[in-house]
Amino acid sequence: MTEARGPAGRDGAAHARFAPGTPCWVSLMVHGLAATQEFYGTLFGWEFRPGPQQPGPSVRALLDGREVAGVGRLPPDRHLPVNWTPYMASDDVDRTAETIRLCGGTVGVGPLDAEDAGRLAICSDPSGAVFGVWQAAAHHGARLTGVPGTPAWHELLTFESESVAKFYGTVFGFQPEPVVSADLDYLTLHLAGRPVVGLHGVGTSLPRDRGPHWLTYFEVADVDEALEHVGGLGGHVLRPAHESAHGRVATVTDPEGARFALIRSRHPEPAGAGSGR
Predict the structure, then answer these.
(1) Cβ-contact 195, 188 below 8 angstroms
(2) Which InterPro entries does UniProt cross-reference here (predicted)?
(3) What is the b/e burial string over 260-270, where b = at least 16 CB atoms within 10 angstroms of the residue's CB?
(4) Residue 60: inside a domain
(5) Phi, psi of 102, rounded to the nearest 5 degrees
């Protein structure tokens, strides 16, 4: 979890646009758009309104009228892993995409315009983990943070953290800060001295059907109560609720298999996040 998010503060007030490299948005591509809205609407109290229809149909999730996440529909012929994808802010997505290619990453989609909302690219790092890059126009990104139903932290689960940290450091200017532990491979990446994302090297513990991937933590008021909702709505619990250094946390999937975490953070917000979650 990080306090340095850009335009969305803990009260959701709009400030300047997100600093380049800062996670500014999170989105999910699914096959069943209506069923997904029902799941997350019930779980997080989200309401939805239409988003850009290019490159495909999408909706934006809102809390108290403020945008917090996006959900889009996959083309029927695309059989891709369903996963929440964080977007990093960029002042020039075309230049960022070229840097990603030069550093051994892949640009799978774009750069392209999402109507008047902004310009995007969907990329993967050298280990294969997918992330997005967002150049804001009319849509700057999330407008509310720090309350239940909003993204609290983004963590990359990968084979090992050091080499992939060099990639993200070169592309976005992140500075790594390792967690000092003999048995934990974890780096927190910082911008301007503040934590923005975590990298967790888990070696062969990665799910065989996933490979390296980003995991988004969503703030909830009560993790155990949220888990009951997940099960009742057709989701699954991958890791039951447990206490961590940063709060009570659990890992779950939605009905289409998208993995995410639920967390009841301890406040004030910690300097880093993720390790031991």
Answers:
(1) yes
(2) Anthracycline_SecMetBiosynth (IPR052164), Glyas_Bleomycin-R_OHBP_Dase (IPR029068), Glyoxalase_6 (IPR041581), VOC_core (IPR037523)
(3) bbbbbbeeebb
(4) yes
(5) -65, -25
Domain co-membership, 29 together with 126: yes
The CA angle 23-206-41, to the nearest 5 degrees, is 50
| Residues 141-160: tens digit of each pLDDT | 899 889 999 999 999 999 99
- Output the pTM of the full model: 0.89
Same domain, 162 and 96: no
Domain boundary among 136, 170, 192: 136
> Of 103, 136, 169, which residue sits at a domain end?
136
Task: For residue range 33-85, list pLDDT tens digits in order.
Answer: 999 999 999 999 999 999 887 767 889 999 999 999 999 998 877 666 789 99
> Quick one: 210 and 247 in the same domain?
yes
CATH of the domain at 257: 3.10.180.10
Q: What is the domain count for the chain?
A: 2
Domain span at residue 244?
151-265
